[in-house]
């Protein structure tokens, strides 16, 4: 009996141990799984670029007609616009005639530039800044004066202020495939009307072509004109903008990009067009450069060090950073590529309570918890990101739809910091309501439809710094 009792008792304790171990394993599975890995994955096919004779690439009719028209903010606070366009036949006139319902015609005259890249010669690239605009006003503008005139319009943002609602679109890594066209169309048709695009780098993907065929820069400019001529696109540079090709004799990085896309970097005291800031409505937007030097003593480091203390949150409560390469990314693609910059700048992001960081580069979508990894110093082994209510939310929207296809392979288990991830093409919307609340949503391209596949309320880190990680998710 004693033996039996002993055996029975051993068996019972074994069972307890097994259950305990199983429980631990199950718990670990839950603990390790940070957030949601969406089960929706699009057909994994590399999308072809649209052919050169596609309607979206059409050259506007008429002699020397302006093409590839795009606008961006032209000063620091939002009452200037840079108008850019290209004429193909001759330089033409770099002037812009503009007016509003309340003002007479005015004229501003800009500059014209060209560049060569290997065997390609650009058209005549015009950039004209029109300033002293009234806030919250629709302006019409005409370019191509003296040849073929074309007319467009834009609306200036409201004057900077803490409770000014404003809606930003987020597009990254767009390229010029059929999927790119779907993404842009879904953005245009989104009922949450984006008023300005924060562009997250990697524009045309021309460098994926033999000899970096710059004709694909021109087609991209014509493709995006239908949005970028009417609302500002705030530019950040990605790796596909570098165009460094010593084998072709092209050794000046960013040559096509810097000739085609002017930004108001001087207005924020920057010394290069790759990092700068603007204020727009209730947002302070800092553009950083993943592909420019950022270590101590570099121009970008020095600029950001003096820039962050200047942000007045009682004027612009929402502090947004955009840059191409993510710091928190749980996809295999570009895993840890942003680590150098994270180590350099993350303590400042936490100190100055950046609200949200938008990235591209990884061709998928991901949204993080508010986490930081600032305790890690290489030798102390504290290398796991921890929840931090002073830290930003990191969002990757590198899923514009370019010819390189989706990044579908994810690290497993999903890290704690990753709240939601999905490998689909789409775009984002950041909808600021007031000084405390903003609504972020990500809209996947689901066949013919845009589907809000992820969303969250964000609480401002300056005015309402409470935990927002359990806000809603669609
Ligand atoms: Fe990239």
From TrEMBL:
It catalyses: a phosphate monoester + H2O = an alcohol + phosphate. Residues 391-450 form the Purple acid phosphatase C-terminal domain. This is Purple acid phosphatase. Its EC number is 3.1.3.2. Residues 66-156 form the Purple acid phosphatase N-terminal domain. GO terms for molecular function: acid phosphatase activity; metal ion binding. Residues 167-365 form the Calcineurin-like phosphoesterase domain. It comes from Prunus avium. Belongs to the metallophosphoesterase superfamily. Purple acid phosphatase family. It comes from the Eukaryota. The keyword Secreted does not apply. InterPro entries: Calcineurin-like_PHP (IPR004843), Metallo-depent_PP-like (IPR029052), MPP_PAP (IPR041792), PAPs-like (IPR039331), PAPs_C (IPR025733), PAPs_N (IPR015914), Purple_acid_Pase-like_N (IPR008963).
């Amino acid at each position: 009996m004693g033996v039996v009792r002993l055996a029975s008792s051993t068996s019972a304790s074994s069972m307890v141990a097994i259950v305990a171990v199983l429980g631990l394993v199950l718990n670990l599975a839950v603990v390790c799984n940070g957030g949601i890995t969406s089960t929706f994955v699009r057909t994994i096919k590399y999308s072809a670029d649209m052919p050169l004779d596609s309607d979206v690439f059409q050259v506007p009719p008429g002699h020397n007609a302006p093409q590839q028209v795009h606008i961006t903010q032209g000063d620091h606070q939002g009452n200037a616009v840079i108008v850019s366009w290209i004429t193909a036949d001759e330089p033409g006139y770099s002037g812009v005639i503009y007016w509003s319902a309340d003002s007479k015609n005015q004229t501003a005259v800009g500059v014209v530039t060209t560049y060569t890249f290997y065997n390609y010669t650009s058209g005549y690239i015009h950039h004209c800044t029109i300033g002293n605009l009234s806030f919250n006003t629709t302006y019409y503008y005409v370019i191509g004066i003296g040849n073929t005139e074309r007319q467009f319009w834009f609306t200036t943002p409201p004057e900077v202020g803490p409770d000014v609602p404003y809606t930003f679109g987020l597009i990254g890594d767009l390229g010029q495939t059929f999927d790119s066209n779907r993404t842009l169309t879904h953005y245009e048709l989104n009922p949450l009307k984006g008023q300005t695009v924060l562009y997250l780098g990697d524009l045309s993907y021309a460098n994926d072509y033999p000899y970096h065929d710059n004709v694909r820069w021109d087609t991209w400019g014509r493709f995006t004109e239908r949005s970028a001529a009417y609302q500002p696109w705030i530019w950040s540079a990605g790796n596909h903008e570098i165009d460094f090709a010593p084998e072709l004799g092209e050794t000046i990085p960013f040559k096509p990009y810097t000739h085609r896309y002017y930004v108001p970097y001087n207005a924020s005291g920057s010394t290069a067009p790759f990092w700068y800031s603007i204020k727009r409505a209730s947002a302070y937007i800092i553009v950083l450069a993943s592909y420019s030097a950022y270590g101590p003593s570099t121009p970008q480091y020095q600029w950001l060090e003096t820039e962050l203390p200047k942000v007045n949150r009682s004027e612009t409560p929402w502090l947004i950073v955009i840059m191409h390469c993510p710091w928190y990314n749980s996809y295999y693609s570009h895993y840890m590529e942003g680590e150098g910059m994270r180590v350099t700048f993350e303590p400042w992001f936490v100190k100055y309570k950046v609200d949200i960081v938008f990235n591209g580069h990884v061709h998928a979508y991901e949204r993080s918890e508010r986490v930081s990894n600032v305790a890690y110093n290489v030798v102390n082994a504290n290398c796991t990101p921890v929840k931090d209510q002073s830290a930003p939310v990191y969002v990757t929207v590198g899923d514009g739809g370019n010819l390189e296809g989706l990044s579908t392979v994810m690290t497993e288990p999903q890290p704690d910091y990753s709240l939601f991830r999905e490998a689909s093409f789409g775009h984002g919307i950041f909808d600021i309501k007031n000084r405390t609340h903003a609504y972020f949503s990500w809209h996947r391209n689901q066949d013919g439809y845009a589907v809000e596949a992820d969303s969250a309320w964000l609480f401002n880190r300056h005015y309402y710094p409470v935990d927002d990680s359990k806000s809603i998710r669609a």
